[in-house]
Amino acid sequence: MRSRSNSGVRLDYYQRIVHRLILAHQEPVTGLFPASNVNSHAWIRDNVYCILAVWGLSMAYKKIADQDEDRAKCYELEQSCVKLMRGLLMAMMNQKDKVEKFKMTQSPYDSLHAKYSSKNGLPVVGDNEWGHLQIDAVSLYLLILAQMTASGLQIVFSLDEVSFIQNLVFYIESAYSIPDYGIWERGDKTNHGEPELNASSIGMAKAALEAMNELDLFGARGGPASVIHVLADEAHKCQAVLQSMLPRESNSKELDSGLLCVIGFPAFAVDDAQLIHNTKDAILSRLQGKYGCKRFLRDGYRTPKEDPSRLYYERWELRMFENIECEWPLFYCYLILFHAFQSDKRAVEEYASRLEKIMVRSEDGILLVPESYAVPQDLVGFEYQKPGSQTREVVGRCPFLWGQSLFILGRLLQEGFLAVGELDPLNRRLGAQKKPDVVVQVVIIAEDNEIRDKLAEHDLHVQTIAEVAPIEVQPARVLSHLYTYLGRNRKLGLSGRKSRDVGILSTSKLYSLKDRIFAFTPQFADLSRFYIASDNELMIDILKGEINFLKSAWDLLGRPLVTLVLKRIHLDQDKIPLAMIQTMRKLKSGYINGTRVMLGSLKDFLNTSAITDLSFLGSTEDGYPDRLHPDVQTYLDEHLLRSFSNRSTMNLRGGQLRPRTLRRRMSCKGAIKKTRSINVDSDNLGMEGPSPLTERRLSSIVPPPWLQANKQSHVSVFATTPEEGPTSSPLNLGNELIRENIYPVDPHHSRSAIDRRSEFVRQQEITVPKILIQRHRAETNFADTEVEELIAMLRETENLEEQGDILQYLVDTQGLDFNTELEQAFVDDVVLELAGGGGAGAGAGDGAKKSPTIVLPTVIIEAATIPAGTGTDPDNAAHPSSATATANSNSNCVGNTSNTSSSSSSNISNHNNMSPHENNHDSSQSEGMLEEGRVVTVRDLLKGLYEKACQQKLWGLVRHTAGMLGKRVEDLAKAVTDLLVRQKQVTVGMPPNNEYTITAPLPEVELRQLIHDAYGDDESTAMLTQELMVYLAMFIRTEPQLFHEMLRLRVGLIIQVMAKELSRTLNCDGEEASEHLLNLSPFEMKNLLYHILSGKEFAVSSVARGNLSIVSCKSSRVSKKSQIGLGDPEGEDALIATIDDRQGQWLRRRRLDGALNRVPRDFYSRVWTVLEKCQGLAIEGRVLQQSLTQEMTPGELKFALEVETALNQIPQPEYRQLVVEALMVLTLVTEHNMVPSLGGIIYVEHLVHKANQLFLEDQRKVQGDATLCCAKIKDGKEQQQAASGMLLCGGAAYICQHLYDSAPSGSYGTMTYMSRAVALVLDCVPKHGEMECAIS
């Protein structure tokens, strides 16, 4: 027998150690490792780490296999890994119902368990008896599964297991927004069982998602069915959140050594080398000790001061653990691996020698890694005095298998048995290396030939959708639908992907499906979305942002490909908007905003783009992997039919087909048929005579009971004007109505339906007896002339604002679902008029401001031209069949309406004289329409108005109607989540009374409700709030630096400041300014927000297109003054008007900073030091107790939020800023150690008011500006005014406006007065003697 080589002998030594320390504990049945000899529980995380040494050793043997025994050993070790990984897989698959449930609820009680029985793999503790939700554990399992599979191990055996793992990918893909218990199973460090967002979990999930993407779980032997698919955007969201958090671990843990496994082996989750370096340095400088690293600051686990009888800590006792936290040698093992992967030999040796000093030798001389080192009970006092001076003792398990396994891996690397690449076959370690520049490919496609020719005029040559065949172009939602089939499995009861979101990274690839190729347009370009999609400039802005994002985020093979379809709805007065032409030219030039781009056609880019195979759409479960899943087949067929054959008429919004804008009045024959997506046999229209009609008419006079309760729910009170919405052309009719219809009548059973309805009316006899007695002559007696006239005016006026007023009024009095009985004929008319008439000229009443209205989802039929005055015209009354304007048994509105739109009263009178025959000749048709059973409600008219306003870019009207119709921003929940996961809290509503704080991601519905509650009836502001949240989320994704030192985004305040800024630049009063604000187009709104966030100066240039013309109020129902109104404009505006530009700039700056909650750097940690030296800080009645410093560390986010909450009690932003300045002066006092303690509770406002007094005294001495207002010699009147709360100069909170407008520095600067105030107010500051003044 050949003698064994040295390396072989050495490996055999490691094999004995691995066998004795690790494999000896592996349960033979399940393959799992128990926690210790006395505890049979098996933790997922510990088990995966334990097996890494075995896997590493097997690969070392594979390399030197110079004898058959070595190959045998290698195989034996590999199979131990497979056994363990499959043991965990079986344990998790037993809980498949939880995986399915968790995708929906994301509740900690529905999560997979963190530990199982090592004997049988079954659960060992209940769902709510343990912090089971540990996303990092499941992620670690998936990551190592991917690495092992890539190294050649076969762990997954069947396609059912593949679909289970695909569902585990869905389980972790939202890690960036799911608070969990984290790597130490604690959640919040007080251990009260509150989960929090942990950077270590997010990082591990990001690594797992990237590792799993496009991985074939059957290794080299697999086919398309065994491949795992991950949407690249999910991993990128985890990365973005991770980068915004590091080096912080969570709200309560400002730093955590557990992050070492995220920045280095095994996750390698951070791409930014600088951030890796900063995180490692922070951990080493604050957590490293002689015996390893502390897990996190104030970690009480196993310290002598911990009370072992209870699981949780009292909040005050956390302070006791400072400086005596246990130190864990485990982290030295991580650091050795970290530096080995960086190939930094010196550091590896340094940590190896440190580690050897603290390892424990067993009887047979093996080095063991202990779990942790604690300060002995009797030495605690000395350790407090001089941290790090005392000898510690081993506590916990020894050997600690997690650490031991990593130690052995480190040794194998150090001795050269393994190369780093073998532990990382997927090459994750290379993530932080510099990548070449990404070139973004852009393809623009015209919807039809007409648009193609228009582009050609500008020397831009593109193809039409038909010409790019065989490549098929689809909107993003088709892709999102196809992805719901991923991971479905009937046997396991798993339902596939739940999230409907597909981001730009996913739509920037091509997809192959059998022999077809699909390109998808990005999600933001989908017009069925919110109204901001109809602002072309904003869409272009978003496009530039997305291209920029692709430059930094793209890391797939091939180049990203952005496909855009230019549609008819993008045209502006039949021309291609200039902004679009300019952008296309820029794209053509090859650079846009510093990103390299290529504009070309789809076929040119086929070879250079990333192509993903949608193989998971086959019917694998039915045994036909090559055939498409039948549901997919039908979905695609329907969709293709819709999107191709009728390309010219297709409107993405509802997918129904309908003719282009109607320029002339149509004859009514067949019109219904053309525009409805549900066709009715046209032959029986209007054949059934008048009798059912009256009944039906009658029934609709009584609004159904379930609507009455609701009547007021959407009433709005906001003065607003034009604005923008999803431009779905006015033809958006069919579908909506069908959904909204209150009385769905099947044309073929119209009799019975109508009888049922009259039955319904009879049940109402008690409430409306009169109507029923007079059944067939209801109209004559109960025509509510008010409503009639209104509806007449509605038909008459061409002015959208006026229509808005009228509809708003109808909503206020009758409710959204009030049946106007205009029936189709009318609506058509309105639609036609809208299509023709456009101007939002003068004459818009104030009601319009109030009334947002939405799309007429009704059909365009020019049937009966209903004379407006029907109710009052005897001829009509006699015709039971004529479609008259509605009568409602509600006649309280006379006074108001007459002036709602007096301008059109003259038209009404003409209309009344219309010759009778005009009314009759169409009656049969109108009857037919009624027969068909459509009811036109106010809501339908609102919808029509909304669509028109979108088209005509009357943004105020759009925002308002959108609010009334309860439209919501589709990405609202996503936007809020984007802000929250980057540790920014969001508040909505106007301070101080109804401000609601959002601290955790909420579902769409709850968010809308919350915003609705915050603004009451003010629909426009509620809509604006949603819009601003979306913009804030865009900014935080693209320019996170704008949000430095801001913890809470108070949207209500931001809106007020935007209005104030407008009133300042346009020199108008508050109401006008809020009007202007609501009329800004979405693009300008985003722009204004940007200027306010970045503090840049701006000017308002044109007041163009009539958008900002303010119209005198005609309606007596003037809406409540908009809530955006400015505090108390009278005095302030008068003052500002007289002052030139240079003045007011500090006031403005303080106002902006206060509204944005911006604070100086390290402000919160400095307040912590102040709080440590006094008993409390009182701000606006809220006391920050000194005990907060006992619980929280200075850099902890939870502490910052406490301070922030106290500051947010102050309603006036500029006053808040002065309070912040006063706190800064206090921090200077403590930092320079002027005094040992600051005494009792400090009332911060007293300091500010004292400073104001000193300021006014100085002003009197030097005859400064303030002598005009606050520094005047007071007389009686003056006193009265001060008592009523109004300073002459309009300064907030009784502080002179001129103090707000003083610079911080200088002899008359605010800091000077604050310091003097501190010296006077605080008893602890010595009153005499020399003191060094260090205030700069």
Number of helices: 56
The averaged pLDDT comes out at 77
Distance between the termini: 83 Å
Task: List how many beta strands DSSP finds.
Answer: 28
Largest sheet: 5 strands, mixed
User: What is the percent of helical residues?
Assistant: 40-55%
Global structural class? alpha/beta
| Outline | globular
Strand content: 5-15%
Radius of gyration: 36 Å
- Low-confidence runs: 644-783, 823-932, 1103-1141, 1276-1286
Pfam families: Glyco_hydro_15, KPBB_C
Membrane topology: Lipid-anchor
Domain Phosphorylase b kinase regulatory subunit alpha/beta C-terminal: 1066-1260
Family: Belongs to the phosphorylase b kinase regulatory chain family.
Provide an overview of this structure.
The protein is an alpha/beta fold. It has 56 helices and 28 strands. Helix 5 (135-150) runs parallel beside helix 7.
Annotate the secondary structure layout:
Layout: H1 6-21, E1 41-43, H2 44-64, H3 68-93, H4 96-105, E2 115-117, H5 135-150, H6 159-173, H7 199-212, H8 232-245, H9 260-263, H10 273-287, E3 288-289, E4 292-294, E5 327-328, H11 330-341, H12 345-358, E6 360-361, E7 367-368, E8 372-374, H13 380-385, E9 393-395, H14 401-414, H15 420-423, E10 439-446, H16 449-457, E11 463-464, E12 471-474, H17 476-483, E13 488-489, E14 494-495, H18 504-507, E15 510-513, E16 516-520, H19 536-553, E17 561-566, H20 578-589, E18 591-592, E19 595-600, H21 602-605, E20 611-613, E21 618-619, E22 624-628, H22 630-645, H23 671-675, H24 691-701, H25 705-708, H26 734-740, H27 750-763, H28 769-773, H29 778-782, H30 785-796, H31 800-814, H32 823-836, H33 846-850, H34 874-878, H35 894-900, H36 905-912, H37 916-920, H38 923-931, H39 938-952, H40 955-964, H41 972-981, E23 985-988, E24 996-998, H42 1004-1015, H43 1019-1038, E25 1048-1050, H44 1051-1066, H45 1070-1079, H46 1082-1094, H47 1129-1138, H48 1145-1155, H49 1163-1173, E26 1174-1179, E27 1182-1185, H50 1187-1191, H51 1197-1207, H52 1213-1231, E28 1239-1243, ...
Parallel strand pairs: 10-11, 10-17, 10-19, 12-16, 15-20, 23-25, 26-28
Antiparallel strand pairs: 1-2, 3-4, 4-5, 6-7, 8-9, 13-14, 15-16, 18-19, 21-22, 23-24, 26-27
